């Protein structure tokens, strides 16, 4: 008696049965696995993260364009603007819920101060430099956060990286250099100046320091409330950001603000926020000073700050429900999509930035480096999981300031417990050829 096959059968054109093991069946099975009911929320979170990330980057550049003559005012606005938002949420959670644990309330405030200081410096260089750095180039320069964070982790955390990760980081840096070639060799462009490109790139250094400090300073708290953290970060970031005004006095060109002109510049920035153009004469693309473009500035900044909060919420959701691998893949996909949107005239209007040969080359090189780095990171994470006997815990401490630089997840390591004297003694016996039963190795210290 012939047993019936349990494999589903299909009928070919001649009526003969054939097993469902072709490429089409495998693709169908893959999609069936991906779109299982329990995976639908993950797909939605990931797509929303990508879309909100693209919109966030576009709105950030449009906001910079609206306040192109008032960068310091914009920096202060995007710092102080988050304090009432986070303050209201934290006040509600403190007085009406028990969501904020006691260990979070007792967390040393000086650590928030250090984090806020690093984020304040990052935000200053991003906003002031980003006003005169094109949107697509901003996205490419942002990818330098990976090699800079790796270097900072190597110095301060003694972190070690695989050759694949180092190779990927090197390729990313080479892509950044290629992306800067048009600014270095092309004619002067007031909207995309090589000096301000490097000024923007400097922001990566304090942001890399912030990434590393989050790994050092916040390891002691297992469950830090994100809203509480962001309130204190915004509070200290705003105060320290205000005291950065002396830097404005040494900036070149129309970005220079002498000490006695800081308050008038802030006043003009407030008028720009209300939609009033101040600088309208003796300005233009052929002159050093650009004309004001404050029309609907208040709408653009409100949209940006709103989508920035939403974007960071989706970062947390993707990390929590999908993991760091999916987050990294989504982050990689977001880069080319954002640069494509920057080149679409019907979306960007006068702020459109067409693709150039070198910008495309830089994008491709950086994407190759990102893929290499992500693969190396996944391999390293799997090895760490095997060594620790389980999945490595990943958490993200997002920044809601104007930086617009990608947040790097922190892979929390399981602390290595010291071996007991009994274990070390038995291990020595084993090396000497003296047999020791396995249960002796695992005996508790107090036995």
Count the beta strands: 4
Low-confidence stretches: 1-18, 411-417
Alpha plus pi helix count: 19
What is the count of structural domains? 2
Order of helices and strands: EEHHHHHHHHHHHHHHHHHEEHH
Helix content bin: 55-70%
Q: What is the topology, as strand order, of the major beta sheet?
A: 1-2
Q: Mind describing the biggest β-sheet? A: 2 strands, antiparallel
Mean pLDDT: 83
Tertiary shape:
globular
Compute the CA-based radius of gyration. Answer: 26 Å
Give the end-to-end Cα distance, rounded to a whole number of Å.
63 Å
In short:
By secondary structure, the chain is an all-alpha fold. Helix content is 62%, strand content 3%.
How would you describe what is shown here?
Helix content is 62%, strand content 3%. It is mainly α and 447 residues long. The chain folds into two domains: 48-416, no CATH class; 419-447, no CATH class. It has a two-stranded antiparallel sheet with strand order 1-2. Strands 3-4 form a two-stranded antiparallel ribbon.
């Amino acid at each position: 008696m012939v047993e019936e096959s349990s494999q589903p059968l299909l009928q070919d054109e001649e009526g003969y049965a054939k097993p469902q093991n072709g490429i089409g069946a495998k693709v169908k099975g893959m999609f069936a696995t991906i779109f299982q009911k329990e995976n639908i929320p993950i797909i939605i979170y990931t797509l929303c993260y990508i879309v909100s990330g693209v919109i966030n980057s576009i709105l950030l550049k449009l906001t910079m364009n609206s306040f192109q003559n008032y960068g310091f005012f914009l920096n202060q606005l995007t710092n102080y603007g988050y304090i009432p938002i986070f303050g209201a949420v934290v006040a509600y959670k403190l007085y009406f819920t028990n969501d904020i644990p006691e260990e979070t309330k007792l967390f040393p405030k000086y650590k928030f101060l250090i984090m806020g200081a690093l984020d304040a410096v990052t935000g200053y260089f991003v906003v002031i430099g980003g006003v005169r750095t094109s949107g697509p180039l901003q996205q490419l320069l942002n990818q330098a956060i990976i090699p800079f964070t790796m270097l900072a982790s190597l110095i301060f955390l003694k972190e070690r990286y695989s050759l694949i990760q180092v190779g990927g980081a090197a390729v990313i840096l080479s892509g950044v250099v290629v992306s800067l070639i048009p600014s270095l060799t092309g004619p002067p462009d007031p909207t995309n100046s090589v000096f301000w490109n490097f000024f923007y790139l400097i922001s990566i250094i304090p942001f890399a320091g912030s990434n590393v400090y989050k790994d050092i300073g916040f390891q002691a708290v297992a469950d830090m409330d994100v809203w509480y953290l962001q309130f204190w970060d915004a509070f200290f970031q705003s105060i320290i950001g205000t005291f950065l005004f002396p830097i404005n006095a040494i900036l070149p060109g129309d970005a220079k603000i002498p000490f006695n002109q800081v308050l008038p510049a802030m006043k003009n920035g407030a008028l720009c926020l209300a939609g009033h153009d101040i600088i309208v004469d003796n300005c233009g693309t052929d002159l050093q000073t650009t004309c004001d473009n404050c029309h609907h500035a208040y709408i653009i900044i409100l949209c940006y700050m709103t989508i920035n909060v939403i974007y960071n919420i989706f970062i947390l959701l993707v990390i929590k429900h999908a993991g760091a691998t999916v987050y990294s893949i989504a982050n990689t996909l977001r880069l080319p999509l954002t640069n494509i949107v920057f080149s679409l005239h019907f979306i960007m209007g006068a702020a459109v930035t067409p693709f150039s040969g070198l910008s495309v080359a830089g994008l491709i090189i950086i994407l190759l480096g990102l893929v290499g780095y992500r693969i190396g990171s996944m391999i390293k994470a799997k090895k760490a999981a095997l060594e620790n006997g389980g999945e490595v815990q990943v958490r993200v401490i997002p920044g809601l300031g104007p930086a617009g630089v990608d947040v790097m997840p922190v892979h929390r390591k399981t602390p290595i417990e010291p071996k007991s004297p009994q274990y070390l003694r038995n291990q020595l016996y084993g090396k000497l050829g003296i047999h020791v039963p396995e249960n002796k190795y695992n005996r508790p210290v107090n036995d």
